[in-house]
Amino acid sequence: MRHAARPYSQIMLSDSVKAAPALRSREDAAAAALLAPSAAAGEGAHPSTADFDAWFAGRAAAGRYQVRQIPFGALRGWSFEEGTGDLRHETGRFFSVEGLHVALEHDWYQPILHQPEVGVLGLLAKRFGGELHFLMQAKMEPGNPNLVQLSPTVQATYSNYTRVHRGKGTRYLEYFVGNRRGRVLADALQSELGWWFYRKSNRNMVVEVTDEVAVHEDYRWVTLGQLGELMRRDLLLAMDTRSVLSCLPVPRRERGALLTDVELLSWLTEMRSRRHPSARLVPLARTPGWRVGESSIGHEDGRCFRVVAVSVEADRREVSRWTQPLLEPPGQGVAGFLSRTIDGVRHVLVHARVEPGLVHTVELGPTAQWTPGDHARLTGQDEPPFLDALLTADPARIRYEAVHSEEGGRFRNADSRYLVVEADETQAPLDPPPGYQWVTPGQLTWLLRHGHYVTMEARTLMAGLNLGSVR
Predict the structure, then answer these.
(1) Which residues lie closer than 8 Å to 346 by C-beta, 6 or more apart?
(2) Do 207 and 342 sit in the same domain of this protein?
(3) 321-328 and 296-299 as β-strands: parallel, antiparallel, unpaired?
(4) For 177-274, where are the alpha helices, taking DSSP H only?
(5) pLDDT of residue 424
(6) Which one, of 318, 321, 297, 291, lies nearest residue 309 by Cα?
(7) Backbone angles phi, psi at 386, to 5 degrees
(8) What region holds the dTDP-4-dehydro-6-deoxy-alpha-D-glucopyranose 2,3-dehydratase domain (predicted)?
(9) Buried residues in 11-25 as b, exposed as e (16+ CB within 10 A)
(10) Is 189 in the same domain as 265?
(11) N or C: which terminal CB in the chain sees fewer CB atoms within 10 Å?
């Protein structure tokens, strides 16, 4: 028997009485509340801080690692492209070394790394005894000064986790891509180093899970409190670890700030509107002042960064042998915040930094940032303002100090001394020069929920603030 079709009006009425989805608070206060107990927990369940050094030393010693510089002619799968001179992989993937032309107050050319794909930096979180722990990885990267550092759970470019290298898969990737499991605590696209990368972004994620996780021997659960202790050590926490940790929604009790959030955004928008350099990729063969030699690409004055080739053996990586280019800076850099407590609220002095490789060209960076012989030589700038206040600071005023390296998968022996220094009115006036502004850590935490507002160097300093490493 055929049933009469329902009139359209009845269908609409029937559908309209279905339960509407429940509204939820726009702020995930519970996620932020999880972080405070973990930050206060110096001893975690897996393992204790006292056991960490033995575990980490054991993992570093467990692998057979060798990195040696080679001539470009010994690169396997890499070659200089005919016509452009760009250094590329035969697959067209991974990254390339190309030229960049920048027109700002000063006109210059330089090589730059071009990697037009978004990588995943993922940190897995889980509660043990009610305290949030994070799954960290002891990982070797060929450019790290000490080779093995503490990395996020997942640290992989798109080319790597799609296995262009034909090696092993990326452990724990399923928690961060596709139909992933777990509760997202942080998720934002963030820039990489804007002087050395062209418009490179990584997805920074923190995901909490409740199910059982099989832990590989190269991984360990640690608390935020433990990470805060480790953040004070030199050359231990990898750049990608510091980047993800800076994105955590750490709760802050700040009863005010010198600028409202709207005023801060308006000021940054003004900086971006006013200083918008022209930065475009050009053939590497047509970058004046730069020379391609048998074993390096360098500036003719010998003082800037250079690009070299290396051969790598690493039996605990997805691929055990490979060759690749790396960018090598000329010396150790410096990056730091000057800090002042204003009416009981900590503020840090940020600089609206112009970096040609950034997506929006301007992001909030440290008060002062400097690599000897590097971009200042290219732009004709003198040493940046406030650098002397960092370098000559009274030790009693140094609230944080450690040496950290940059991403060892692309840069060789690239490390900087990071500082947070308590300043006074003579060193850092409350009415700063143009391009500088006083902001609170809470305001930077708010901006870090979104992408492309805070540079990698400033994120390293924010990781120290988030973890309680800054006194």
Answers:
(1) 339, 340, 440, 441
(2) no
(3) unpaired
(4) 224-230, 239-246, 261-274
(5) 97
(6) 297
(7) 75, -5
(8) 50-248, 262-465
(9) eeeeeeeeeeeeeee
(10) no
(11) N
* Burial of residue 391 (number of CB atoms within 10 Å: 0-12, 13-18, 19+): middle
**Structural domain includes residue 91:** no
- What Å distances lie between residue 150 and 57, 170, 353, 432, 458, CA to CA? 11, 16, 28, 37, 19
CB 166 within 8 A of CB 328: no
What is the C-alpha to C-alpha distance for residues 282 and 384, in angstroms, rounded to an integer? 28
Q: Per the domain annotation, does 79 fall within a domain? A: no
What stretches of 129-241 adopt beta strand conformation (E)? 131-140, 148-151, 154-156, 183-191, 197-198, 201-208, 219-223
Q: Which pLDDT score is estimated for 166? A: 60
At residue 37, the pLDDT reads 78
The number of helix segments (H) and strand segments (E) in the chain equals 11, 25
pLDDT at 214: 96
**d(C-alpha 179, C-alpha 461), whole Å:** 33
Please tell me the chain's helix, strand, coil percentages from 3-state DSSP, rounded to the nearest 5: 25, 35, 45
208, 265: one domain: no
In this prediction, residue 6 carries a pLDDT of 58
Contact (Cβ atoms closer than 8 angstroms) between residue 307 and residue 328: yes
- Residues spanned by the domain of 60: 30-64+116-246
Q: Can you tell me the distance from the alpha carbon of 123 to that of 112, in angstroms, rounded to the nearest whole number?
A: 28
CA–CA gap between residue 243 and residue 215 (Å, rounded) = 23
Note the pLDDT of residue 63.
92
Distances from the Cα of 131 to the Cα of 36, 41, 181, 275, angstroms: 9, 8, 20, 45
pLDDT reported for residue 168: 77
Radius of gyration of the chain (CA): 24
Q: How far is CA 299 from CA 2, 287, 303, 330, in A?
A: 84, 10, 7, 11
Domain count, the chain: 2
Give pLDDT, residue 383: 78
CA angle 251, 26, 258 (to 5 degrees): 45
- Token pair in block for residue 114: 């071009």
Record the tokens describing residue 104, joined without a space: 């700002």
CA distance 316 to 313: 9
Q: What is the mean pLDDT of each run of 10 residues along the chain (471 residues)?
A: 54 59 83 78 62 94 96 98 97 95 89 95 94 96 97 87 67 89 93 96 96 95 94 98 96 94 97 86 97 97 92 92 96 97 97 94 96 60 87 97 97 97 97 97 97 98 94 84
